[in-house]
Amino acid sequence: MGNVFERIGRVFSDMQYTGYFIGAVLFVAFFSAVYYFLFKFLKDSGADIYIKISVPVLLVSGLALLLVGNGVNGFFLLLPLAVVLFAATVYSVEFKSAIWRRSNLKLSGAKYAVKNYSEVEVGNCIDEIIRALQNMSKNDIGAIIVLSNNNVPERILESGVEINSDITSQLIESIFFPKTPLHDGAMVINGTKITAAGCFLPLSQKENLPKELGTRHRAAIGITENIDVTTLIVSEETGIISVAKGGNITRYADSELLRKTLSKFYWQDVK
After folding, report:
1. Do 173 and 258 lie in a common domain?
2. Which of 42, 70, 90 is the last residue of a domain?
3. CA 253 to CA 271: how far, in whole Å?
4. pLDDT tens, 190-247?
């Protein structure tokens, strides 16, 4: 009889631990979901990501300790959160890129009507952009041009000034001319229109970029890490023209590479 009661006791004991385990899993799942949405709505990818992640995690940790009470149990509950914090810190660029791309899917194509461009219209745009880039390169005028497929977030567009004008080399060069109000920001091109200028872009979080690449290049690379766009950059110091796509940069872009990049943008990226 004693053995029977012993077994029953063990069953209830196992159930108690099982219940605790399920509760712990639900606890971690809940706060992980809260953590995910906090992280998703981070606005400035150029800010210190570690601090922005640490604050909510510390708050969650304190709440967990208050709810659990027991130090040992609290440790095992907080361990998964510590792992999440470590992973998010180490892989912050990858996490942010995935979140940005996912959150911007609705902006691409769905919000705007699809437009077909004629070969003449596209050819003129390509010629005007290349002419402007080469002229600015000769005169060491810095510039960032974002080739967008209607997928640049509104907050970036609103950080600049709406232009909504046809693409001409004269307009591009005048916007980036030194000392003008919009010359320090980025220009956004959608199709055959200059949508906005003077826009602020998120900086790249990569630590292995060449030291000679300054803030302009970091911004041009940064937006391509987060959004499926192409950027064209002219260095103010050297006049070197570069192309950034998918977080990678190609320097010393000549007219052939620029034409190839722009042709791909108009005939493949823009649908």
Report:
1. yes
2. 90
3. 25
4. 999 999 999 999 999 888 888 888 999 999 999 998 888 999 999 999 999 999 999 9
Full domain range(s) for residue 259: 119-269
Q: Are residues 207 and 85 in the same domain?
A: no
pLDDT in tens, 111-159: 333 356 788 999 999 999 999 999 999 999 999 999 998 889 989 999 9
Determine the distance from the C-alpha atom of residue 45 to the mean position of all C-alpha atoms in its chain, rounded to a whole number: 7
**114 located within any domain:** no
- Rounded to whole angstroms, the Cα distance separating 196 from 190 reads 9
Split at pLDDT 50, 70, 90, the class of 106 is very low
- Name the domain count of the chain: 2
112 occurs within a structural domain: no
Q: Decide if pLDDT at 52 tops 90.
A: no
Residue 168 burial (CB < 10 Å; 0-12/13-18/19+)? middle
Query: For position 245, which CATH number holds?
Result: 3.40.1700.10
149 and 51, same domain (yes or no): no
**CA dist., res. 140 & res. 183, Å (int):** 13
